[in-house]
Amino acid sequence: MHSLLLHLEDVGVHFGALKAVDQVSFDLHEGERVAILGPNGAGKTTLFNAITGISPATKGSIKLGADIITKASPNRRAKLGIARTFQITNLFFGLTIEENLLLATRGLQMSKFSPWRSNQANADERDVIHSALTRCQLDNKRQTLVKDISYGEQRQLELAMSLTSSPKILLLDEPAAGLSPAERGNMAEIIRSLPSDLALILIEHDIELALGLVERVICMYQGSILVEGRPDEIRGNQQVQEIYLGKPRHVTSH
Ligand SMILES: Nc1ncnc2c1ncn2[C@@H]1O[C@H](COP(=O)(O)OP(=O)(O)O)[C@@H](O)[C@H]1O
Ligand SMILES: [Mg+2]
Hints:
The chain is of the alpha/beta class and 254 residues long. The protein has helices at 44-52, 74-79, 97-107, 123-135, 151-163, 181-192, 207-211, 231-235, 238-245, and strands at residues 4-15, 18-29, 33-37, 59-64, 67-68, 82-84, 169-173, 199-203, 216-221, 224-229. It has two domains: 1-81 and 168-179 and 197-254, P-loop containing nucleotide triphosphate hydrolases (Rossmann fold, 3-Layer(aba) Sandwich), CATH 3.40.50; 86-166, no CATH class. The protein is built from nine helices and ten strands. The strands form two sheets. Strands 6-7-8-3-9-10 form a six-stranded mixed sheet, with helices on both faces. Strands 2-1-4-5 form a four-stranded antiparallel sheet, covered by helices on one side. The radius of gyration is 18 Å and the shape is globular. The structure holds adenosine-5'-diphosphate and magnesium ion.
């Protein structure tokens, strides 16, 4: 087994009386790929926010390697190797794909908008950008303005941008949402071919897509972990069938 990377113990994110995330414990090892499934409102995105620091845990603890990061700032967690996908709202539509990647590459150095820095990539930055472009199947469009690429390509760019910090853990919140079947296929292929030492946590509504990309599945329901298992165990699980796959009428989901 690879070494332990992320350890969540009894994590809760409570908003007043609402326990958006409650009593969540799990481990993630180096290079491990995990999917989080669950109906709308189950607490999946809030759990991501607790891990990245956007909405820190109000209970429990989160450890990354030897560091306790329960209350650390999002910036500190990013520096320690946790990345989430950029949102489309973070893209600069009037710039090229390559220029967006250069800004992302410099993001962690807090010099994003420095007028003193060259807008030409240096050799190291070029390597990082080239690798992200290739991985995300965007190398032939690197000079294209973001406003002129498809929605699917914009989502590929978000993923490429999150890779520029060379993270240890990547959190993907519904990376295939809103994509056409062909674009979903591309996205799945890109995710599958991410570096094998990069640990991945994937939230995805398309269950077949998710189960085909991970070795372990965590099912959340009403803020807590309902079941955890291998994809084949999850497929056959009665509770999961009822609550998620079967989508009974009393559970709102889409
Ligand atoms: N900042 C917040 N303040 C109050 N309630 C929130 C906040 N963020 C999320 N919630 C609530 O927490 C619950 C879980 O939401 P979310 O994590 O977005 O679910 P999911 O991603 O599984 O669809 C929902 O009831 C949602 O309304
Ligand atoms: Mg969500």
